[in-house]
Amino acid sequence: SKSEIGLIGLGTMGRALALNIADNGFDVAVFNRTTSKVKEFVDDAGELSQRITPTETLAELVAAITPPRAIILMVPAGKPVDDQIEALRPLLDANDMIIDAGNANFRDTNRRAAETGDLAFLGIGVSGGEDGARYGPSIMGGGPKTSWDRVSHILKAIAADHKGEPCATWMGEEGAGHFVKTVHNGIEYADMQMIAEVYGIMRDGFGLGAATISKVFDRWNAGPLQSYLVEISAAVAAAIDPETEGPMLDAIVDAAGQKGTGRWTAIEAQHLAAPIPAIEAAVVARNLSSQRQIRAKGEELFGAAPHRIPHDILGVDQLEEALIAGKIICYAQGFEMIAKASIEFDWSLPLPDIAKVWRAGCIIRSAMLDDMAKALSEDPHRNLMFAPHFAKKLKASHIALRQVVAQAALHGTATPALSSGLAYFDAMRTARGTANMIQGQRDYFGRHGFEHINGSKDQHGPWAD
Ligand code: NDP
Prior knowledge:
Elements: E1 5-8, H1 12-23, E2 28-31, H2 36-44, E3 52-54, H3 58-63, E4 70-73, H4 79-88, E5 97-100, H5 106-115, E6 120-127, H6 129-135, E7 138-142, H7 145-158, E8 161-162, E9 165-166, E10 168-172, H8 176-205, H9 210-220, H10 228-238, H11 261-272, H12 277-289, H13 292-302, H14 316-344, H15 351-357, H16 367-378, H17 388-411, H18 416-428, H19 435-446
Parallel strand pairs: 1-2, 1-4, 2-3, 4-5, 5-6, 7-10
Antiparallel strand pairs: 6-7, 8-9
Bound molecules: NADPH dihydro-nicotinamide-adenine-dinucleotide phosphate.
């Protein structure tokens, strides 16, 4: 009998996804560019191989799927996706569906959706890494709702489960799913960066070893900061390097890699004029981390920072509070960006559902997302920081964030994400800011005009002529 769905690209993610699909009782036909990997994969699939049909050509793959077909692409984003679509197109019938499950740029997904003609096209963001793909990812879908509805039973079955609710949600038309996945990754960058920053204060400011730091993260993971990222930070800090027999963390080079989704978030935020400084700071921090030699020269030239922070000035509990504040602030920025995009692209992005789909399966899953989903359900148009639950938390925790940022600055530890998060918070609680000076300058040199506080628009200052 024929398979219900097909999958192309048996790499890390594709293999895991195919096994997940089979594990959930669906027959899946698979193909991979390097065809030898297809047989290897099926041979290793054990009992699940009964549900997996290996194929060696695209024509064979297409023939193995029940029409109207649905085929998942799990190949690297960019040209490989376009190439695969081109190769499939002549083999497919009208209404057959291609589902790009890679980390596509949503603008590519918009374009592909417009180009696929009578084929159906879905762009789905899949988060959770290899384990997520195998045992339940978070899935953010985009494209025609009717196409989503055709395959949603499979996507919901393979997705993570949050207390009975599957983490697979249709976000909107075109590249809406890939857009939401991109912002997810941007938030992920900021969340990771803020954790790295408090790690830095514990290591350099407090002089704590990795094992102690691991215990701190473990403790935090039992409280309001409970999250996958804090959990794995504890595990990373606890691990021992078999070679040096010291902490693994101490043997890892401090230059972070990236595949571009954080950068895309920052670029799109600028297009949208959406202020997401904590996320941008996290992207910048990764770029800066790769400049190792320059940093080493800088240390020679300016002298080594950071310096120890006395225990009576700052403690681990304040770091926890600061991280809570920083986390609320950076998620508020991410959701504000999504709200702006929703208007700009006419997508009606479901903010509460986005918080819900992130509660399980994905890298940024956390206890706090439950409260965020609730707050956004009450009022999706309100900045998350202003929702009563989070306003109360911020009123209590911004003081610690302030102390952490101030002490880090005084002792020479860079905390770019926490600092810009704090600056965002302060700007967002200041009714009278300083852009009056900007407007004065703009009018002075360019006669751009300003609004007077009496309400009259297009006013000019007495400096004209
Ligand atoms: P891998 O590198 O493990 O696998 C890539 C797969 O794509 C291989 O099967 C490879 O085939 C195939 N492929 C590569 N180039 C082409 C091409 N030009 N034409 C056809 N097939 C090609 O990648 P991943 O599984 O890690 O990632 C796949 C997608 O999933 C990417 O978009 C990635 O960004 C996204 N993703 C990855 C996550 C992760 O944690 N790894 C998490 C979420 C999303 P061959 O065997 O012939 O080389």
